[in-house]
Amino acid sequence: MPGWDSIERLIDLEANQLKEEGAIPEAAEAAATEARHRRLAGCDEFTVWAAFDNVPRRPDFPFIEPGDLAGIRAARAGRDKPLRLRGGEAELRDRLLGAWLGRCIGCALGKPVEAFMRPHGGLASWQRVKAYLTAISPDEWPIRGYIPEHSPAESHTGRTVCPASTREHIRFMETDDDIRYTVLGQYVLQTYGRDFLPIHAARAWFDKLAYGQVCTAETQAYRNLAIWDEPVRRAGNPAEAAAAQAAADWTRITHHLNPYREWIGAQIRCDSYGYAAPGRPALAAELAWRDASISHVKNGIYGSMFCAAMMAAAFSLEDPMEIVEAGLAQIPAHSRLHADIRHAMALCRALDFDFDRFEEAIEELHRRWGHLSPVHTNNNAALCVTALLLGGGDPVRSISLAVMGGWDTDCNGATVGSIVGILRGAGGWPRAWSEPLHDTLYSAIVDYHPIAISECARRAGDLALQFMD
Questions:
Q1: Cβ neighbours for 346, distance < 8 A, ≥ 6 positions apart
Q2: Contacts of 68 (CB under 8 A, 6+ apart)
């Protein structure tokens, strides 16, 4: 099975990833040089990648970033006490419909300009989005509707992709990894229950996802799971599931040929776990950890836990700042992601939470985190928080800012859409945004293709009620 990229490219990315995790830069580069030598000598991929074993860390690296659930819980500053839900069952179900609509609306808004995630033609990612839209009309900025398929500026900015999600053509939510993972999380909970194991989530990939439907860290983890597939096969037997979980070499699965292990993939997989734990951020974070840990480490895991916890908290809290704090409370207090989110919060505070100053915020985000991949967890999570806080919980402003900020536009639009959808409920979405989807999702996953978005929300409500203690 081919990986996401060539092994030569993976070697380059691994050196950078190790530096992000605190490796001594010279040691990381020396390991990459040795890996290239082994590759040229015809060594197998395992020998090549072993060059990265035991690269020493900087003694002054200030962050503490465990990967196991017990270690994460010990390192956080949060609590396990549930929050009080607002309203009864009818309101819960309305918020879940708002969440599913929000994830679909936000994803569809960002899909056409997802290809603008990198600098191009002297423009930063977000500037490409702005130039594309303002060339159509100054009234297109800030965003107030779905993205048009064409712009007079496209020869300079690049063309849109995914025409089925553009203003002229949108008739349903088209398939997308951001939506498939939400479906898959629901499937995991329906099939294995609230006490599912990470190995069950891995088994769900094999059962429901084609290899070509996954990207970056998921591609590499899927490949590694296929190489060492005995535990995954055994996970289908309930009596053997715990043994299969213990038998899997998770360090090898998450690290081998996987320099994407702190990228955004796990963060976009967490929504159904937040939906299943309304008012219980700690539970939502734990469920997200079980899923994220099959492909990611450290901040890649924390992003998933953070966002799932925010979604769970949004069923109970009304202030976006309190929702962000509830998410932060579930990740290690001395992690890079925790520090980066605090910086984004301070930025919004310095701008007086004024939406009209959103360009100042975006410029600062790109100045501070522009060195990271446009699909890294930390920069995109910081943008999501900025969208929530400057958007003030308003659904349209929040998803618009998430997309106007560039980088991984469909992922960020979807994540922020989930949170504000829970916060405001289905009625919070103007009909001009919800009606073009015609309550229809094409997910490319069996039993969800096609399916009514409202039916996905109904199933989410059944799970949330079932899992309440």
A1: none
A2: none
Lowest pLDDT segment from 281-285, 320-324, 333-337, 444-448: 444-448
Average pLDDT over residues 146-165: 98
**Cβ(442)–Cβ(335) below 8 Å:** no
pLDDT at 118: 97
Query: Can you point out the beta strands (E) in 13-136?
Result: none
**Total H helices, total E strands in the chain:** 24, 2
Position 268 scores a pLDDT of 98
Residues ≥6 apart with Cβ < 8 Å to 451: 440, 441, 443
To the nearest 10°, the Cα dihedral for 52, 56, 62, 66? 50
- Which token pair is 376? 């890294």
- pLDDT value at position 195? 96
**What residues does 1 pair with on adjacent strands?**
none
Give the number of C-alpha atoms closer than 13 A to the C-alpha of residue 180, restricted to the C-beta side: 20
Ordered by where they begin, the domains of the chain are: 7-52 (no CATH), 74-111+174-467 (1.10.4080.10)
Question: Residue-wise over 391-413: b if at least 16 C-beta within 10 A, else e?
Answer: bebbbbbbbbbbbbbbbbbbbbb
How many angstroms separate the CA atoms of 45 and 31, rounded? 14
- Residue of higher predicted confidence among 72 and 244: 72
Q: Specify the residue for token string 């096609």.
A: 450
Q: Is the model's pLDDT at 164 over the cut of 80?
A: yes
Residue 215: exposure state from Cβ atoms within 10 A (0-12, 13-18, ≥19): middle
Distance set, CA 224 to CA 227, 228, 294, 432 (Å) = 5, 6, 10, 44
pLDDT tens-digit readout, 107-139: 999 999 999 999 999 999 999 999 999 999 999
Ramachandran area for residue 110 (φ above 0: left; ψ -120 to 50: alpha; else beta): alpha
The candidate with the shortest Cα–Cα distance to 444, out of 101, 96, 184, 255, is 184
CA atoms lying within 13 Å on the CB side of residue 449: 13
Q: What's residue 1's pLDDT?
A: 57
In this structure, of 92-101, 222-231, 248-257, the range with the lowest mean pLDDT score is 222-231
| pLDDT confidence tier of residue 417, bands split at 50, 70 and 90 | very high
